[in-house]
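Q: Structure tokens for this one, please.
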Amino acid sequence: MLVHLHRDMKQHFFKYQGTGNDFIIIDLRESNTILNPECIRQLCNRHFGIGADGLMTLKNHKIYDFEMEYYNSDGLMATMCGNGARCLVAYAENQGIIHDSCRFIAADGVHFANINGNHINIRMNDVDHISFIENDYFLNTGNPHVVRFVDNLQVTDIITEGRRIRFDKQFQPEGTNADFAELRNDVLFVRTYEKGVEDETLSCGTGAVAAAICSHKSGRVAGKKIKISTPGGNLLVSFEKTGDRYHTIYLEGPAIFVFEGDFEIIKQSIVVSPKS
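A: Here is the predicted structure, written as tokens:
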């Protein structure tokens, strides 16, 4: 249940980024406060708030090391965010909540992660169904994705084409993310239009996984460990395949602390006090 943050109440936050995909993290282990959608939108706004692609909360859990809740910058909850999860694992390790490895639960289920310095390797959910729609692939890697392979990624109009795919009636009412990929010299270059952000992001973890799996499904790559290059940095996706099912899927890459601070709501406006 969403609970309004009371006016004039201060809340601490942390900001992390994973290959340019940036997130606000709020630790709720000792609080039951959850921000309402409008507040999340304001916090994620890059002109009037902290600025982020999404917001995550970390909560205690009776069975697992912690619970993750993820919200897109539009204020709505999403099932999973690969880069966000890696950042939340990095935060948990930096806070001493976990060490070296962990198991946590998100809206799409349980995930396992390994920690090696700033590099976080997270296990994603299995993929057992991939649809071929015209020249595109459609699958769910924690979030729905359409993957399109192109000949020249640099000149592809990601915003126009991504928005058209995202709002295509065949994917409604949930909608879909749109990934555009090009294989060059054994590296898969990927750009993503993210629903909920409604723009191209510098990187998308579930999108990188989707593109990697589809590159194997389509026969473009034979190996099961694929280097991904996004506008925000490099990721590594590995997996196993049994029959039509892709499993033991891992997403690996950096997760970096950016800054921390406090915010409070004053007369429906958000005031942010960053700390170095």
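A few notes: The CA atoms of residues 81 and 208 lie 11 Å apart. The radius of gyration is 18 Å.
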